[in-house]
Specification:
Layout (H helix, E strand, L loop, with lengths): L10 H12 L11 H14 L2 H14 L4 H13 L3 H14 L4 H13 L3 H11 L6 H14 L3 H12 L6 H13 L3 H14 L4 H13 L3 H14 L4 H13 L3 H11 L6 H14 L3 H14 L4 H13 L3 H17 L10 H14 L2 H14 L4 H13 L3 H14 L4 H13 L3 H7 L5 H7 L1 H4 L25
Helix pairs in contact: 1-2, 2-3, 2-4, 3-4, 4-5, 4-6, 5-6, 6-7, 7-8, 8-9, 9-10, 10-12, 11-12, 12-13, 12-14, 13-14, 14-15, 15-16, 16-17, 16-18, 17-18, 18-19, 18-20, 19-20, 20-21, 20-22, 22-23, 22-24, 23-24, 24-25, 24-26
Length: 481
């Protein structure tokens, strides 16, 4: 069933937009007062329908050339088209005419943030906050600029202020947890989000993010409960099902993870992706035949699903059928080239990573390197793909590239022992013992012993390696790194 494009809007918005589309967009003349034009323009902004949006702004300018609110929307349209210098010119002119207009100050904050002027943006947002209107949005924007400056304390402070305002939006809650994760403040996030859902028990985003925090602390049972609360609030909340399934997978409960994903089919607008996710669950259990069956279901739903073909290729690779894996991954590459992702001209990261892995298994280092380089250039790779590339570089002893890449990755994931461990090993094998020593407090001892056993018995470095806290734990196999 096709979703009603007005399902998130009231009848007034529906009536005005349809009236505009049945008159002005068909070349007729129709009078709308300035408030009505604002509603129409804001609708098109919200749904990101660019062609009628541009016409609505033009028409509003024809009717009300001196309206501050319409000129502001013209500036917002310029910003959305990345015409930042034009937007700033318009906004600065308005600023001179109306220096106390907090709407102009807010827009100047958005424009300056877009061009990397975070400190200017913050100053404008502080001005905009003076009138107390839409503080959730203002504080959230301030938090984003502090995050860009890597001032995590201020970013989290203003995200909390935004969450405690009456105008908090969904994205703010997600961003609060993302910054908590990146800055290593997950335990503090658990405390704050726990209190937040007590005050806002019907916040599905609050429960979802609390679940993510518990999951990332490996408190899986609590994570499961939190995700189930989110689903109870909104049974169509696809992200919560996916996170719940992922957590069950970490717990080794593959059948439960699959059942959770099957529940999503009633609500997902991409059943091929659901089947592909189930296939990947079975693939991680080395149940490749069942995984292939689900990848086939994904292809039946969407014959042009390049990722399903790529995942099938990886299964064939693991099963030792390299020729079939190559032909399948080539099919995935062709599908990806014929239907490229808009935000990834280099190619779909999933397909590129699969191609690199298959060619590496074939023994074609040059071809594998080419696909990995395209993956990294895309800048859309996931952390697991980042780790796969790190392992590839280590396997082939490309230590210069590995150290550069892993050092950057460690900045992005500062609390992940994976990169510290590979850096320690790479530094050791390139005789940079002092750098290796600096990594040792943060390594995974078991992983280091696996990839670099020589360092474990080194007379100077070996004694500095911390003991493995999970070495004698019966739950070691369930530890999520």
């Amino acid at each position: 069933m096709k979703k009603d494009r007005f399902h998130n809007f009231d009848n007034e918005v529906r009536d005005l937009v349809l009236d505009f589309e049945n008159t002005v967009l068909k070349g007729k003349t129709q009078f709308f007062d300035v408030d009505e034009m604002e509603i129409i323009i804001d609708y098109y902004f919200e749904v990101n329908d660019q062609k009628p949006l541009e016409r609505a702004v033009e028409y509003a300018e024809e009717l009300y050339p001196d309206s501050t609110s319409i000129r502001l929307r013209r500036a917002h349209l310029m910003i959305s088209h990345e015409q930042y210098s034009k937007a700033l010119k318009v906004l600065n002119q308005m600023r001179q005419a109306e220096p106390d207009n907090t709407d102009v100050a807010y827009s100047l904050g958005v424009a300056n943030g877009a061009v990397g002027q975070s400190e200017k943006a913050i100053a404008y947002f502080k001005e905009a906050a003076r009138d107390g209107w839409m503080l959730g949005r203002v504080y959230s924007n301030m938090a984003e600029e502090y995050y860009k400056l890597k001032d995590y304390d201020s970013a989290l402070n203003f995200y909390r202020k935004a969450m405690e305002s009456d105008s908090c939006d969904d994205v703010t809650v997600y961003n609060y947890y993302d910054v908590s994760y990146v800055s290593g403040r997950i335990e503090q996030a658990v405390d704050y989000l726990g209190n937040y859902v007590k005050k806002n028990p019907y916040s599905k985003e609050g429960w979802y993010c609390l679940g993510c925090a518990y999951r990332d602390l490996t408190l899986y049972e609590k994570a499961v409960d939190a995700f189930e609360f989110a689903i109870a609030i909104d049974k169509t909340y696809v992200d919560a099902y996916v996170a719940l399934s992922q957590t069950q997978d970490f717990m080794g409960r593959t059948s439960e993870a699959v059942t959770t994903m099957l529940r999503v089919l009633d609500y997902s607008d991409d059943p091929a992706k659901v089947y592909r996710t189930i296939g990947n669950l079975y693939a991680r259990e080395a149940n490749y035949n069942t995984a292939m069956a689900y990848f086939k279901k994904a292809v039946d739903e969407n014959p042009r699903d390049a990722e399903a073909h790529a995942s099938s290729a990886l299964c064939l690779m693991e099963m030792g059928d390299i020729p079939s894996a190559l032909s399948t991954v080539k099919r995935a590459l062709l599908l990806d080239e014929s239907n490229p992702m808009p935000d990834s001209p280099e190619g779909n990261p999933e397909v590129l990573c699969a191609a690199a892995m298959v060619y590496d298994a074939k023994g074609d280092f040059e071809k594998a390197s080419e696909f990995f380089e395209r993956l990294i250039v895309s800048n859309l790779y996931t952390e697991p793909q980042c780790q796969i590339y790190t392992q590839f570089l280590f396997k082939h002893r490309v230590f210069d590239t590995l150290t550069f890449f892993a050092e950057e990755s460690l900045e992005a994931y500062p609390h992940d022992a994976f990169y510290s461990t590979y850096l320690a090993a790479a530094y050791f094998y390139t005789n940079r013992y002092n750098r290796a020593r600096k990594m040792l407090p943060d390594v995974s001892p078991s992983l280091l012993a696996d990839i670099c056993p020589e360092i474990m018995v080194h007379p100077l470095l070996g004694p500095l390696i911390p003991a493995d806290p999970f070495a004698n734990s019966p739950e070691n196999n369930n530890h999520h790194e």
